[in-house]
Amino acid sequence: MSGEIERYERFRQDLKAAGIRLTEQRKVILRVLAEADDHPDAHALFLRASAIDASVSLSTVYRTLKLLEERGAIQRHAFDDGRSRFENNDVEHHDHLIDLDTGAVIEFRSEKIERLQAEIAAELGYDIIRHKLELYGRRRSKN
Amino acid sequence: MSGEIERYERFRQDLKAAGIRLTEQRKVILRVLAEADDHPDAHALFLRASAIDASVSLSTVYRTLKLLEERGAIQRHAFDDGRSRFENNDVEHHDHLIDLDTGAVIEFRSEKIERLQAEIAAELGYDIIRHKLELYGRRRSKN
DNA sequence: TGACAGATGCAAATCATTCGCAATAGCATC
DNA sequence: GATGCTATTGCGAATGATTTGCATCTGTCA
Question: From A110, which residue of chain B is nearest by alpha-carbon distance?
Fold first, then answer.
């Protein structure tokens, strides 16, 4: 995927433009995030970053994640397992289906559901800022 | 609402049938839950229960909540504010719209969305066990 | 190259929740 | 109604994820 490099560059530009220092640790974390195509939690990202540069601390991982989340560069998800999981925010919006047996996360998107949500909120007098749709399911047995 | 008394009785019967002791503390917590028509967290429930019977501890509130959740008598929700909120499980299934400014929780239900979710899961080869749909929004300005 | 504000690592602090343990109290039995 | 066994309780300590205080370090820009 060349998308990873683009992603990394986007992170980089984004921080630069905001006058935020591009430290060695941040570079490593940005790289790890850019390469991630799963939904890692803070500790997993810390492990991946540490493997590249041992000077990266868990605190900095948390601080950087918060920074990127605030700038809208990544998304934080709170699935039902307690900790937060992160994902690049440059992809098209989608929802998640979590496999209850394996913990696997499958992404999907339904235009119809998006539209219905907006309609429902409007009826209730609200504008949706964001939403969360998670399906928890089991693989359908093929009998 | 006379529903509260029925609810309380249902909790009571449920625990009794399972051979679980009906302690003074549990009675108070069951009552508080039966009376709740909002989505209180553990600490809020603890405060309400303490007001009735000071001998109720936070630990017991947590233990009782877990007990009732496991027995399917109440539902646990993990909105984006970190802690768990609880709600009676005898009401019709519904989803939630959370007011980002006030924290208020509005319940709604859409048959269409329910159906679409099942369709999507089926296409991906899954059966939905449960799902979570939360809309986070702001009151629409009336101009 | 120097200066300084922003960033870092570490350890300690939070916050919600759980757990260990000795003391207590349901509840079935006598 | 008393007795005994075990589930349950309150307390405080432990946990796990995340945040924060602080002394030290390091980008960045002049």
Answer: B120
